[in-house]
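In practice, a research group might receive sequence data for several interacting partners and want a quick structural hypothesis before committing to experiments. The following worked case mirrors that situation: the sequences arrive first, and a predicted assembly follows.
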Amino acid sequence: MPPIVEISALRKAYAGGFEALKGVDLQIAEGEILALLGPNGAGKTTLISTVCGITTATSGTVRVGGHDTVTDFRAARAMIGLVPQEINLEPFEKVQSTVKFSRGLFGKPANPALIEKILRQLSLWDKRDSQIRELSGGMKRRVLIAKALSHEPRVLFLDEPTAGVDVELRRDMWEIVAELKRDGVTIILTTHYIEEAEAIADRIGVIAHGEILLVEDKAKLMARMGKKELEVQLSEPIIEIPASLASDALRLNDDGTALIYSYDTRGERTGITKLLAEVAAAGLILRDVVTRQSSLEDIFVDLVHEGEAP
Amino acid sequence: MNWTAVKSIYLFEMARFFRTITQSFISPVLSTSLYFVVFGAAIGSRIQEVEGVSYGAFIVPGLIMLSVITQSISNASFGIYFPKCIGTIFELLSAPVNFLEIVMGYVGAAATKALFIGVIILATAFAFVDFEIQYPLAMVGFLVLTCISFSLMGFIIGIWAGNFEQLQLVPLLIITPLVFLGGSFYSISMLPPVWQIISHFNPVVYLISGFRWSFFGAADVPIGISLLAIGLFTALCIAVIWWIFKTGWRIRQ
Ligand SMILES: Nc1ncnc2c1ncn2[C@@H]1O[C@H](COP(=O)(O)OP(=O)(O)O)[C@@H](O)[C@H]1O
Ligand SMILES: [Mg+2]
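A structural hypothesis for the assembly, expressed as tokens:
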């Protein structure tokens, strides 16, 4: 199956000459949830805006559902829903009318039943006749989501949908995302929150300085992340690991003051008990024991710092 | 064509108009009434007939044009400036609509509002002076064309404007003089020859002249030239808007 979103060699230089996207290639499969992680200013919003037609690319192409987003923009955009990062809403509009407007703008015939369903799902039904300005920030974000869903997109972009929102909305959001996925909608969300990416994504992409540093299956990334290290600090430095302890998982640190043991937290047996028994049997005296987990956060931070190197 | 989108934009904009309908009407009706009192009754009583009609009646077409032009420009410029300013324009830019559909929705709504106000002012005029409209169909035609062409111009101003001052300054600085010097309150033939020549570069002259012809059958410039001028002006505005959307000038980064 061809990817539903195909981004090739996409570059974007803003008017001042600043290059916010430096040749992004990204393919997104139909029905998947891709989380784009990246620090502020990484180019997440620029990437989404360029796909959606809000900014024009300097070079490169984007296809959505096989349609070029520039030459065949009608067909491409008709498939896309966008929940922008900024809360851009007309303060004096009423919730229901602004959601209906979005549907009409995308050329879809009125469908009051669907609009009601969406508003109920987002707990906005009771507020349908309220003006936007009367709503809280979280509620406004729900309205943005409702607007994006009103025209039944096949691909939904969520630009930091849970930044600064309450726990409740975040949970609702995740639920909605799960339901959309069941309906086969492809979802691309950007986030700062690693836990969020872990919780809902199928694949995780890391972007920094306008470049995609990594796109990987979440499960594989989690497997990397599942590695843990146990540091056994010794009261007396040793020169080499005693033969009775030798194993692939064990190494000695540089100054010989600690043994470092890597293991998989999700394995049946971690082998820690055995290791400690053998350490004692070898006559080594323990000073302290420390464990460390390599998290997605570490991977992320490492990648971003690598990107920073000149 | 995405007609559903055109209709949605049009109705959305009209809804904004109906929310503030009282304000929309009170100010033009009040100012027109004042014009009639000051120019028509106070000054007009000392002025002889102009081109065979009483001065009070003579200024009716010009007054309607004055309001219709200012209303078209302010409605249309605000209509597009507002979404640009608060950021809701993202939705227009990401929707499956082309420039023509966006323009038809916004300009259509702005022109409709201006037309409403033109009709209200015409009705107000009947309350102050006696006159007849010789060519009602041509009158309606001129009125509609004016609403559309100046709404197009307002749309361009709305996209160009970077802040509220600019949005309000342009109509004030350019449009008001053009309209006042366009023969709203006098016949161009009453001006010294040099000013008559200068006036022919003012597009509003052709509009008011043509519009006045539809009322009284007399005009400063031939009616065909008036139609041509307004046609050219409209075409120019459409071309500029087409270019704006093609290049993304001031709307797409
Ligand atoms: N309109 C603009 N003009 C110039 N530079 C911009 C503009 N918008 C964003 N940028 C710059 O592009 C970079 C990427 O921004 P953005 O895409 O918003 O990042 P993110 O969404 O990942 O935080 C930033 O350095 C930002 O300053
Ligand atoms: Mg952003």
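Before designing any experiment, note the following. Chain A has ten helices and 14 strands. The CA atoms of residues 38 and 236 of chain A lie 43 Å apart.
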